[in-house]
Amino acid sequence: MKRCLQCKGERLSEATTEERxxxxxxxxxxxxxxxxxxxxxxxxxxxxxxERFELxxxxxxxxxxxxxxxxxxxxxxxxxxxxxxLAELLDVAQETVSRWEHGRLPIERRAAALLSAMVLDxxxxxxxxxxxxxxxxxxxxxxxxxxxxxxxx
Length: 153
Ligand SMILES: [Zn+2]
What we know:
434 Repressor (Amino-terminal Domain), 153 residues, three-stranded antiparallel sheet, alpha+beta
């Protein structure tokens, strides 16, 4: 980005903005990097910083076991997973996910654990939990002889 989209000014510089998000009765805040126009004061997110902030909030909810209907929905959306996809991965009906997210059915702890693990994986740039769930969804039969190799930790 070379010019401000608002005023076409060229005096753009790196800055930060304070972002705030309320989820499930808690307030989360962070300094998020932006590009700011010195002429009109407009700020732009240079990349997926907002999505990252939402993912960090989801991570905080996951780490603390803060699983309410709203938190569950927020975590799913922060991951960018559709309700029908999550239902398939967790082997529950789509209506079950909908009931969890609307507080009409208590969220199963194991479902919350898997969703939390997926959020924390994503924050670390991993897909281990998602890969396991996908493998269970579409198992690839092992041959009758399998040689296992110790993996380095
Ligand atoms: Zn400007």
